[in-house]
Amino acid sequence: MIRVPMAFLLGAVLLFGADEAALRERAARLHREAIVIDTHNDIPMLMTDKGYDLGIRHQSSEAQTDIPRMKEGGLDAEFFAAYVSPAYVKTGGAAGRAKQMIAAIAEAARRNPDLELARSAADIRRIAASGKIAALIGVEGGHAIEDSLDNLREFHRLGAQYMTLTHANTNNWADSSGDLDKPGVEHHNGLTDFGREVVREMNRLGMMVDVSHVSDKTFWDVIETTRAPIIASHSCARALANAPRNMTDDMLRAVGRNGGVVMVNFGGWFLNPEAPAASAKLMPQFQALRERFPGDEARQEAEERKLVARMPKVPLSMLVDHIVHIAKVAGIDHVGLGSDFDGVSGYLPEGVEDVSKLPNITYELLRRGYSEEDVRKILGGNILRVMEEREEAAKRD
Fold first, then answer.
1. Which of 88, 145, 156, 237 has a beta carbon 3.0–4.6 Å from 151's, enabling a disulfide?
2. CA 317 – CA 270 distance, rounded (Å)
3. Both 177 and 69 in a single domain?
4. For all residues of the chain together, what is the average pLDDT?
5. Which of 202, 197, 196, 203 is nearest to 218 (CA)?
6. How many domains does the chain have?
7. Could you say which of 31, 143, 156, 213 is catalytic?
8. DSSP tag of 79
C-alpha cells in the first residue's frame, strides 16, 4: 500500500480550489464582455394572460424570467416568443392572438427603461453597449398567419424577426414533428407549394426561418427552398436524446452547410435520453389535471410541478453535451442558446434553473477547453452573424 503524505493531498486540494476560482473569475469576465443572446423565451404567455410584471424579481417556482434576473445572468438580448396555441386553429383568431402577444412584448419594452426593442444585429450591439437588454420578437407557430402572406408581412412590420414554421401541430402548409403519428391529421409530406412561398417571402422580408418543431421532411424542404441561413430557435441533438423534434446529425450538418445556427433548448424533455419514456408514463396524470381541478389553474400548475419533479434529473453537463455535440457535427459557427425558459414546465438542468444562471454555461464551456473566441460565438456571436447575413440576403432579393 502506498501512503500519500497528508500535506501533499492538502496542497493538491488547495491548488485545485485556486484553479477553479481562477476559472470562475475568467468565466465571469468573459460572460460580461460577450454579447449573450437567447433566441427563445415563452414568458410573453404570462405577460399577456396574467399581467406578469417583467420588471420585478419573481421566484423561480413562479417563472424563470424577469429583468432583474436577466441582468444578473448577463443576458444582452432576448427573443420573446409570441406563441400561438394550436387551439386557435379550431377557435379562430390565431393572427389576432399573435398580435396581442407582440403588443405585450412592445408594452414591456415601453414600461421598462432597461429593455429596448431591437430589429437588427446592429440594434443588439448598440443596446448591449448601452447597458440595456435588447428585446426581439419571434412568432411561434406558422398557423398564426392564417394562410396569409399579408399577415406574415404584418408580423414583420410589427417587429417579428423570425417565425417558427410549425408548433406541435401540422398546419395547412407544413408538417410538424409533433403529430406525425396522430390519427386523423392530414399531412403534406413536408412543405406544400404555399409553404415554399412562405419561406421565400420570409427570405425577401429578412425574417429568419425557424425549423424548430418541424418534421424531418419539412426541414429538408426548407433547406432546398431557402436562400438565406435558417435557425432552429430551440432544438437539441437527436443522437443524444431521441425526441422526434430534436435534430439528426444529417440535419445538423445541413444547417452547417446552409450557414445557419441551432440554438440548444434547455428543456429536460429534449436533453435527457430517459425523458421520453418517463414522460410517457406520467402523461396520463398530466392530462388528468384539468379534469381533476376544473377552473383552478393555480392548483393545476402546482400539481404539474409535482409531476415534473418526478422526472429524471438533468445535470448541467447534459445541456453542455448537446452544445458540444452540435458544435462537433454542424461546426462551432452553428450552435447557440435557445433556452425555452417559461415554456418547458420548469423541467430544467441543475445549474440553469432560471435566466440568472446563464454564466454557469460559460464556466462549463471553458472548463471543457473551449477557447474564449469559441465561447463568444456560442453565447451570441453565431446568431448575430446569421442576423447580419439574413439582412444581406434580403437586400439582394
1. 145
2. 14
3. yes
4. 94
5. 196
6. 2
7. 213
8. E
- Whole-number Å distance between alpha carbons of 41 and 110: 19
CA angle 389, 150, 123 (to 5 degrees): 35
Active-site residue, 143 included: no
pLDDT score of 7: 57
* The one catalytic residue among 167, 188, 322, 325: 167
Catalytic residue, from 78, 340, 354, 364: name it.
340
Q: What is the pLDDT of residue 277?
A: 92
Output the pLDDT for position 12.
47
Any domain includes 178 = yes
Specify whether 334 is catalytic.
Answer: no
pLDDT at residue 14, as a whole number: 47
Q: Looking at 38, 78, 116, 140, which residue is catalytic? A: 140
Cβ-Cβ contacts under 8 Å for 378 (sequence gap 6 or more):
323, 327, 332, 335, 336, 337, 365, 370
187: annotated active-site residue:
no
* Whether residue 185 sits in one domain with residue 70: yes
Q: Are residues 293 and 325 in the same domain?
A: no
Q: 3-state class of 262 per DSSP?
A: strand
Residues 347 and 267: beta-carbon distance below 8 Å: yes
Cell of 182: 396522430
**Quick one: pLDDT at residue 3?**
57
Give me the catalytic one of 31, 40, 143, 325.
40
Q: Based on the residue annotation, tell me whether 213 is a catalytic residue of this protein.
A: yes
- Closest by alpha carbon to 389, among 43, 47, 121? 121
Catalytic status, residue 296: no
Residues 48 and 151 placed together within one structural domain of the fold = yes
The residue ranges of the chain whose pLDDT is under 70 are 1-17
Instruction: Please state the separation of Cα 318 from the chain's center in Å.
Output: 16
Report pTM: 0.94
